[in-house]
Amino acid sequence: MTDLDSTFPLTFTLTPSEAVRAEVEREAILADPGFGKHFTDHMVKIDWTLADGWHDAAVIPYGPLLLDPAASVLHYAQEIFEGMKAYRHADGSIWTFRPEKNAERLQRSARRLALPELSTDDFVESLKQLIAADGAWVPEGGETSLYIRPFMFANESFLGVRSAQKVGYYVIASPAGAYFPGGVTPVSIWLSTDYARAGRGGTGAAKTGGNYASSLLPQEEAYANGCAQVLFLDSSEAKYLEELGGMNVFLVKKDGTLVTPESSSILDGVTRDSIIELAKARGHKVEHRKVTLDEWRDGVASGDVVEVFACGTAAVVTPIAALKGDDFLVGDPDAPAGELTMSLRQELTDIQYGRIPDVHGWLTRLDA
Ligand code: COI
């Protein structure tokens, strides 16, 4: 369903919140935001109907949505989302990272989930509009940021199984510290053998809630086994690495080659793509191809695989110390973070926080 030009470009109205948090309350939250627990004073909403396309773009007070119990998202999970961050630079300005990539991925997800596409310009404008209202919520210092969550879902009250004719797009934002409670320390990963995340022709490459819902039970297994995340293998042969519950994965070989799984059923990560570019620019060979579980297991045993890390918007770059399964352990859960892992992480965050020049042209200013 394409709707890119119906009402483009959208203009936004603003209804200011009457319950804006006092500065002292906001500052207390920003001092220790955690991840995904606190939300800003406003949100963006844009309506879509089959008859009128995208319309009624607005910044409104943050608050509960009124949904009819028959809203189709509640029954058939026609929903997609994005994850991105706003970073405050030393001069106070507010920036985001490669938003056009998120816009394009949201468009691809929309196509797969039979939802209407929102243009890249309207998507980026929706972020700017929210920051215009809630810029004070972008924390400063350390590696804090304002996590931005655009999402879209079917809100037609109809129980027939077909793509909805009434859809809502929203953007909410949440001040964020580290995704993992331990901060940037190496994590152990649990290998899921009973469950797959997505199959061929399924929705694995779309950023849709169902993929995450199906990861929750294996994720519980991971927690029960002392692991921070779960790793999925391909659903047909259970042989190839796919992705973790909410992030992509890289192996680093001893000759400096980076290897990351290629699959039609995993997410095309913006952070993954950026790591690939940063590594290539440093002269590393990067292989984006099918990767077997044995390559990780045998590689660690032989010394050929020297570092492993996860990456994603929320996780940034997180070192992986070990992979655990029912009857095996690969790596050492107490191993320190890999050197290349941490230096790629540093370069990426230095760009995002404006500490080094943005030679790739990846940043977009949100507050001007
Ligand atoms: C992100 O990294 O932004 C994600 O969407 C992963 C997770 C928090 C769901």
From TrEMBL:
Cofactors named for this entry: pyridoxal 5'-phosphate
* PTM sites of type N6-(pyridoxal phosphate)lysine: K207
Q: Which reaction does it catalyse?
A: L-valine + 2-oxoglutarate = 3-methyl-2-oxobutanoate + L-glutamate; L-leucine + 2-oxoglutarate = 4-methyl-2-oxopentanoate + L-glutamate; L-isoleucine + 2-oxoglutarate = (S)-3-methyl-2-oxopentanoate + L-glutamate
Instruction: Show the GO MF annotations.
Output: L-isoleucine-2-oxoglutarate transaminase activity; L-leucine-2-oxoglutarate transaminase activity; L-valine-2-oxoglutarate transaminase activity
Show the coiled coil region(s). none
Q: Where are the transmembrane segments?
A: none
Class in the EC hierarchy, top level: transferase
Q: Name one GO biological process term.
A: L-valine biosynthetic process
User: Which UniProt key words apply to this protein?
Assistant: Amino-acid biosynthesis, Aminotransferase, Branched-chain amino acid biosynthesis, Pyridoxal phosphate, Transferase
Per the record, the pathway is:
Amino-acid biosynthesis; L-leucine biosynthesis; L-leucine from 3-methyl-2-oxobutanoate: step 4/4; Amino-acid biosynthesis; L-valine biosynthesis; L-valine from pyruvate: step 4/4; Amino-acid biosynthesis; L-isoleucine biosynthesis; L-isoleucine from 2-oxobutanoate: step 4/4
Q: What is its EC number?
A: 2.6.1.42
The record's annotation in Pfam families points to: Aminotran_4 (PF01063)
* Gene3D superfamilies on file: 3.30.470.10, D-amino Acid Aminotransferase, subunit A, domain 2
Q: Which family does it belong to?
A: Belongs to the class-IV pyridoxal-phosphate-dependent aminotransferase family.
Q: What is this protein called?
A: Branched-chain-amino-acid aminotransferase
